[in-house]
Amino acid sequence: MQIHPSAIISKKAKLGRDVRVGPHTVIGDNVSIGNGVRVGASCVIEGNTTIGKDCRIFTGAVIGSQPQDLKYKGEKSYLEIGDNNIIREYCTFNPGTGEGGKTVVGDNNLFMAYSHIAHDCIVGNNCVIANNGTLAGFVTIEDKAVIGGLVAIHQFVRVGILSIVGGCSKVVQDIPPYSTCDGHPARVYGLNLVGLRRNGFTKEAIEGLERVFKILFNSGLTRKHALEKIKKEIQPGQEVTYLINFVESSKRGLSRSCHLE
What we know:
The protein is an alpha/beta fold and 261 residues long. The protein has helices at residues 193-198, 203-218, 223-233, 238-248, and strands at residues 2-3, 8-9, 14-15, 20-21, 26-27, 32-33, 38-39, 44-45, 48-51, 56-57, 62-63, 78-81, 86-87, 92-93, 102-105, 110-111, 116-117, 122-123, 128-129, 134-135, 140-141, 146-147, 152-153, 158-159, 164-165, 170-171, 179-183, 186-191. The chain has two domains: 2-141, UDP N-Acetylglucosamine Acyltransferase, domain 1 (3 Solenoid), CATH 2.160.10; 197-260, Udp N-acetylglucosamine O-acyltransferase, Domain 2 (Up-down Bundle).
């Protein structure tokens, strides 16, 4: 380990092999840090926080400070961060709120400078949250989603797998999987074709999703009737089934199509 002399690390904290900690960083009692993690200068890592191996945490990040929730009264809650995450300058990650609450971050994510992950959020794997991306409480970001800079996401919203949200968007309803969205509030513009192709989706799978999107967002049908039409007319492959299940389970409703304006 390489610990700068000015760093303050609790004797109760658990640090793995080959951990490096920069100057003026503070690490609290109940923190567990995995092998190979690099922590920059002037960071604060506290609370019941677990960080996986090979993460890189840059200057000024505050990880595990108590949730910004007026209901929080000191209950024991948790923050769990997976492996190989890059957490850039001045990001803030909060644990869950309420007894036993959790904020959970997966593996291989990039959080650019000033990103905020609020209490009880779930972030999947291989996601990108650009500068000043802000998640309110209880937000779920599925795998391989891309959140643009200065995007604000309302509490309880879900952002689907392989979707991309344009910079400065205001997200108040669920973002469907495989979509590109943008606006204030965010609207669906179509499929994330670049992302689908980069991730090896077949031509047939993409064509099936294009048909689903056309019915769901551009037909003028209600969500219920659009889903009935999709189930009747389109072969239910894995991707189509996933999208249907996402839509049917949406509690906040889906972001609307820009073509309906």
